[in-house]
Design a protein that fits this description.
By secondary structure, this protein is an alpha+beta fold. It contains five helices and seven strands; from the N terminus they run βαααβββαβαββ. The chain has a seven-stranded mixed sheet, sandwiched between helices.
Length: 186
C-alpha cells in the first residue's frame, strides 16, 4: 500500500496575542470535544471545557511571557494553534538543561492531515532551540492513537505515564519527549 503525502493547505503562521483569545478559545473547545467527547458530553468534560478553554483563560495565557502561541490562519481565519510553556520540567524524565512543554497542538478537523500540525510543531522546535531549550515534552491522552502516532512519527519517544484528573475521574496520558539539536549541530 502506497503512503501518500498529506495535502498542504495555504496557511500563514504568526505569534498569538491576547486579542486572539476568543478564536483560540473557541477552536480549543471544538477540538477538545471532538477528541475527548467521542461518546457524548459528560458533565466532567463539559465543566473542564468551560473552566479551561474559555477565552478569558486563553487571554491570561496569551499574555504570560512564559507561554508561546503560534497560530495558523487561512484567509485570516484561525484553523490551528500550538501552545508552548517555556522552562517547564518534564514530570517523568529529568532532561539535562532547560525543557519546554508542548501544552496543546490543536488543528480544526477539516484541516487535519494537511501538514499544518507538522509545520506548527517544526516552528515550535525551532523557536525552542533559538531560546536555548533542547528538550520538548508533551502529554497525550492514551486513547488518542492518532496524536500518539503523529508525535512518534516526528521523533517523540514515549517515556512514561502521567494521569490527568477531572472531577475525580482519571485519564491516563502518555508522556513523550524529544531531544532537539542545537542549530550549529545540524
Amino acid at each position: 500500500m502506497a503512503i501518500t503525502a498529506p495535502r498542504t493547505v495555504d496557511v500563514s503562521f504568526r505569534a498569538g496575542r491576547p486579542g486572539d483569545a476568543l478564536c483560540v478559545g473557541v477552536l480549543a473547545m471544538q477540538v477538545f470535544l471532538d477528541t475527548y467527547a467521542t461518546e457524548g458530553i459528560q458533565p466532567d468534560l463539559a465543566r473542564e471545557v468551560l473552566n479551561e478553554y474559555m477565552p478569558q483563560a486563553f487571554e491570561r495565557r496569551l499574555s504570560h511571557e512564559a507561554q508561546v502561541f503560534l497560530l495558523a490562519e487561512r484567509q485570516g481565519r484561525l484553523v490551528a494553534f500550538a501552545e508552548l510553556t517555556l522552562n517547564d520540567p518534564c514530570p517523568v524524565e529529568a532532561p539535562h538543561g532547560r525543557s519546554a512543554e508542548v501544552v496543546r497542538l490543536y488543528v480544526q478537523s477539516p484541516f487535519q492531515a494537511k501538514g499544518i500540525g507538522s509545520a506548527l510543531l517544526e516552528r515550535l522546535e525551532d523557536l525552542a532551540v533559538r531560546r536555548g531549550i533542547f528538550t520538548l515534552w508533551l502529554s497525550a491522552w492514551s486513547g488518542n492513537s492518532r496524536a500518539l502516532a503523529f508525535y512518534r512519527a516526528r521523533g517523540y519517544g514515549d517515556v512514561g505515564v502521567v494521569n490527568h484528573e477531572i472531577e475525580g475521574r482519571t485519564y491516563e496520558n502518555r508522556v513523550l519527549i524529544k531531544k532537539l539539536r542545537p542549530m550549529n549541530a545540524i
